[in-house]
């Protein structure tokens, strides 16, 4: 779709399955299962949206999905489906890895940074996008390298340590930084301490990529906060602030994990925010 002078492509890395109770935190299953019916293992499907933003200067990919380096056991645990994948999706829209100029990681969990790297023909792990600069919050990189018992399973070093070179990696040490005219990284915290969203502005139009701050349309409801969030009260605070501004200024919101709704505008209904989908 067009956003002012920019173009946004719905690039996708397939789907994965996570425990519904973990995805919806303290919200009882009887409430969330109406819209997200779980499988026999209590898992729900989550899409892996990785939008491509084409500006006047750059082709910018936001997150890279789970990638293709995982073994069969890993794929079974997380229900990873690969009818499509990131590179096939890019190719569908006429782009190849060498065309990508910037990669933005909202954070470094394996379902957001797994496609940062790939296996070469010789079996070496190399950057998937050879000409791109990868933008990551400095604090997020430090948290990923120095993980703990709670976070270790989410951070796979082969997704980010091969990028640890000035040729590829740009560490962001600010809460707000513009990486291209109209494309701004905004630290939101909540899910991880240094999680960042992406604000996209062109010719008076604004879109905001929510990442895991609000992973699905259901999470627009204030109590719906993922059990994976390390700082849930920060999620709540920043969710309220961003949704208020998005509603008042008519932002297009882009969801990362919603299997049904890719993007849309907020509307008020039943005393809470709902989404009016844009296809």
What can you see in these coordinates?
By secondary structure, the protein is α+β, with helices and mostly antiparallel strands. It has a single domain (2-277), classed as Ribonuclease Z/Hydroxyacylglutathione hydrolase-like (Metallo-beta-lactamase, Chain A, 4-Layer Sandwich), CATH 3.60.15.10. It is 18% helix and 30% strand. It has helices at 20-24, 29-32, 72-77, 86-92, 110-113, 138-145, 232-248, and strands at residues 2-3, 6-9, 12-19, 43-49, 52-54, 59-62, 102-104, 117-119, 125-127, 133-137, 169-172, 176-180, 183-187, 196-202, 205-209, 252-254, 263-269, 272-277. It has a 7-stranded mixed β-sheet with strand order 1-2-5-6-7-10-11. The longest helix is centred in the C-terminal third of the chain and has 17 residues, at 232-248. The chain starts with a strand and ends with a strand.
Topology summary:
Blueprint: E1 2-3, E2 6-9, E3 12-19, H1 20-24, H2 29-32, E4 43-49, E5 52-54, E6 59-62, H3 72-77, H4 86-92, E7 102-104, H5 110-113, E8 117-119, E9 125-127, E10 133-137, H6 138-145, E11 169-172, E12 176-180, E13 183-187, E14 196-202, E15 205-209, H7 232-248, E16 252-254, E17 263-269, E18 272-277
Parallel strand pairs: 6-7, 7-10, 10-11, 15-16
Antiparallel strand pairs: 1-2, 2-5, 3-4, 5-6, 8-9, 12-13, 13-14, 14-15, 16-17, 17-18
């Amino acid at each position: 779709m067009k956003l002012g002078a920019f173009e946004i492509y719905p690039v996708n890395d397939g789907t994965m399955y996570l425990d519904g109770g973990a995805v919806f935190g303290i919200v009882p299953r009887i409430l969330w299962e109406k819209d997200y019916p779980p499988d026999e293992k209590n898992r729900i499907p989550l899409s892996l949206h990785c939008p491509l933003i084409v500006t006047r200067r750059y082709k910018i990919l936001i997150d890279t999905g789970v990638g293709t380096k995982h073994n069969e056991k890993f794929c079974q645990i997380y229900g990873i489906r690969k009818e499509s994948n990131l590179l096939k999706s890019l190719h569908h829209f006429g782009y190849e890895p060498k065309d990508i100029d910037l990669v933005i990681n909202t954070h470094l969990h394996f379902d957001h940074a797994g496609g940062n790297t790939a296996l070469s023909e010789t079996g070496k792990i190399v950057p998937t996008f050879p000409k791109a600069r990868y933008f990551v919050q400095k604090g997020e990189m430090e948290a990923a390298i120095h993980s703990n018992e709670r976070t270790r399973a989410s951070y796979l070093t082969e997704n980010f340590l091969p990028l640890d070179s000035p040729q590829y990696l740009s560490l962001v040490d600010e809460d707000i930084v513009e990486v291209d005219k109209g494309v701004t990284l905004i630290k939101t915290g909540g899910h991880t301490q240094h999680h960042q969203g992406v604000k996209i502005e062109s010719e008076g139009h604004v879109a905001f990529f929510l990442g895991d701050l609000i992973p699905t349309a259901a999470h627009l409801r204030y109590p719906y906060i993922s059990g994976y969030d390390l700082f849930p009260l920060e999620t709540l605070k920043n969710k309220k602030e961003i949704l208020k501004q998005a509603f008042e200024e008519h932002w297009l919101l882009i969801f990362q994990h919603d299997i049904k709704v890719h993007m849309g505008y907020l509307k008020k209904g039943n005393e809470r925010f709902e989404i009016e989908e844009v296809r």
